[in-house]
Design brief:
Layout (H helix, E strand, L loop, with lengths): L1 H30 L6 H8 L3 H8 L2 H10 L15 H15 L1 H12 L12 H17 L10 H25 L7 H19 L10
Length: 211
Amino acid sequence: MAQDKSERRRGGREQTTATILDAAERLFAERGFTAVTVRDIAAEAGVSHALVHRYLGSKEQVYRATLSRRETTIRDAAPAGEDLLGATRLMLHEAVINQREYVRLIAHSALHGLAYEETVGRFAATERLVEIAEQVAAAEGESRDPEAPDPRFVIASVVAMLIGWSAAREWILRASDLDGMSDEEFADRFERVVVDLERLYFPALHDERES
């Protein structure tokens, strides 16, 4: 019986923690890190601010926990062994369709001045794409244009486009007379632009065919 009570308490705490983190993700994605308080998160989650502190700690700790729980989700959308184009397509689709709020959280927090050092300090999807891109560049060997951008910069530019779109997508589409585009349409067109960018800077990808 004691074990049953302990399991119920643990299950209740886990559920409450998930509710708090869901609320935090919504608020951080909407307002950025600096404009959100622990009391805001507590009110959104329907709990006391004392409980937020008890379960998760300070606002900085809540933010890190919010990032940490999804830090591998986008990366894991691409199975191990995928080539650069395949991994990019799968990760972009996951980011645009299923993890848009998470990417907006990163975008708005960066725009509101949160230092990178205050985050979890790593973003698994970016790290994996950088690793694959460096492998492609290394395989090109002497045939690679010596003036081509560093593979890390190419991937950084792709990520920057994703974050920029996430922060201001509705504005940009409206300004470009493209409003009304569905998520799927946007994902498809954005993927094409990114794949073309990667092919431009990694000649070894030119022979890859559309899947």
